[in-house]
Design goal:
about 425 residues, alpha/beta, Beta-Lactamase, TIM Barrel, 3 domains, five-stranded antiparallel sheet, elongated
């Protein structure tokens, strides 16, 4: 009788659990129905990107906007979904969100028919129970008014050629990276970002020395960067740069360099080993020059490490000045506002035009090594150097000869009046100990 009573009690409990389960299923079905309705009708484009850069969820609006099927979106890399050109513009924001930052920004998107739309994009990081970033939600709303859409019919031949050329370039960069590092392109962007985040780069410095015979050593150094695995695999230095540029990672890499140089400079100040007037020359990429958030980062980093801005000199490529003078002018204004110096590098590689530097406050002009190499073989090269020296002295800009490799060259440059020189004939790159 006791066991019968226990069995009856268990049956009653099971019936109650079954009833609750049926209620839960009904509630879940109602919720899922509502979620499906929202998924299908919500005008906001929504996608969930995991920490590997794969799309794990998207709604109908996101899929329809891109004109793709679910199979072309689910489980695929965001770069493949958006295309390399569009992704390159968003790559920095994507990596910031994977680093835990919530973002809001506007993005201009060009449709295949040439119509231009404005999107308001929001990134919301997704965290696990331990606070680790597992991905982020990307939400996008169309801000374009009807009068703002200007569709054009692209030339089919030109468009096909451009796409073919871009595909060939992407294929070249991807194959190059696979050769030098052995990594598949699917994770290549994340691989470089991981290397930046985990400090898998080595910094080197090369001395820039004054050519005046009675001058003391300047304490000027150009900072060079190399991926550690390049040394392990015996691959050429800097082979990772095309890949970093392709994935829009150069602003992150440039920030990493600035942070570690300032960290080292602050340590030298504390130890009293910093040479008075020392300066570190840092090359900046095109995307960094165009990055509106870089000056704020620079100011915060200088304040954090308690280092004066004049310890840094940013090198802007001569070709960049010619192609985007407005962006360069704003970059120069911002970094000089932080107390930093500016150098124009590679000057003369594509011809000499002093008109380009009018109105720009630069402190140093670095003469391209291709000219330096030819000063004993080509009278025109020597004439270029003489002309550069004459003009720069009039406008108060110091000159630096790049890629100097012998005493004979040093003597000739000293005779002309060039202020500084760097290259293997001056000093081999040395480890920049952190």
């Amino acid at each position: 009788m006791r066991r019968t009573a226990q069995l009856s009690s268990v049956k009653d409990k099971l019936e109650h659990i079954k009833h609750l389960h049926e209620q839960d299923e009904q509630s879940l079905a109602t919720v899922m129905s509502r979620l499906r309705l929202m998924d299908e009708t919500l005008p906001t484009m929504v996608a969930l990107i995991d920490s590997d850069g794969l799309c794990r969820y998207h709604n109908r609006a996101f899929r329809n906007w891109l004109g793709l099927s679910s199979e072309q979106v689910n489980g695929r890399y965001l770069r493949d979904i958006l295309g390399s050109r569009v992704y390159a513009k968003l790559a920095t924001a994507v990596l910031q969100s994977l680093d835990g930052q919530a973002l809001n920004y506007e993005h201009t998107y060009t449709m295949p028919d040439g119509a231009v739309y404005r999107l308001l994009v929001e990134h919301i990081p997704q965290l696990d129970g331990k606070g680790k970033v597992t991905g982020f939600y990307m939400l996008a709303n169309d801000l374009t008014g009807r009068g703002d859409v200007h569709a054009t019919v692209p030339d089919v031949a030109d468009s096909a050629a451009a796409q073919s050329g871009q595909a060939d370039q992407d294929l070249f960069i991807d194959s190059l990276y696979q050769q030098v590092s052995g990594h598949e392109d699917g994770n290549a962007g994340k691989r470089i970002f991981s290397a930046i985040k985990n400090g898998e780069f080595s910094l080197f410095c090369q001395l820039i020395t004054p050519l005046e015979t009675d001058s003391v050593e300047s304490g000027y150094y150009e900072i060079l960067i190399r991926l550690k695995e390049e040394e392990q695999n015996m691959t050429p230095p800097g082979a990772f740069f095309p890949l970093a540029e392709k994935h829009g990672l150069m602003p992150y890499l440039d920030r990493w360099v600035v942070q570690h140089v300032l960290q080292r400079a602050a340590l030298q100040n504390q130890q009293g080993t910093q040479r008075q007037g020392s300066m570190f020359f840092i090359n900046v990429a095109r995307d960094t020059i165009r990055d509106p958030e870089f000056p704020a980062f620079l100011a915060a980093a200088l304040q954090k490490y308690g280092v004066a801005g004049n310890v840094l000199c940013f090198e802007v490529p001569d070709a960049e000045l010619a192609s985007a003078s407005a962006a360069v002018a704003e970059f120069v204004r911002q970094v000089r506002g932080c107390g930093c110096r500016v150098a124009l590098s590679g000057f003369g590689r594509y011809g000499i035009s002093f008109n380009l530097i009018r109105g720009f406050q630069i402190d140093f002009l670095k003469i391209d090594g291709s000219i330096i190499f030819d000063i004993f073989r080509d009278p025109v090269a020597l004439a270029k150097i003489v002309a550069i020296d004459r003009v720069t002295k009039k406008i108060g800009v110091k000159t630096i000869a790049e890629m100097v490799e012998g005493e004979e060259t040093i003597a000739k440059l000293r005779e002309v009046g060039i202020d500084f020189a760097q290259g293997f004939g001056i000093s081999q790159p040395q480890s920049f100990i952190e």
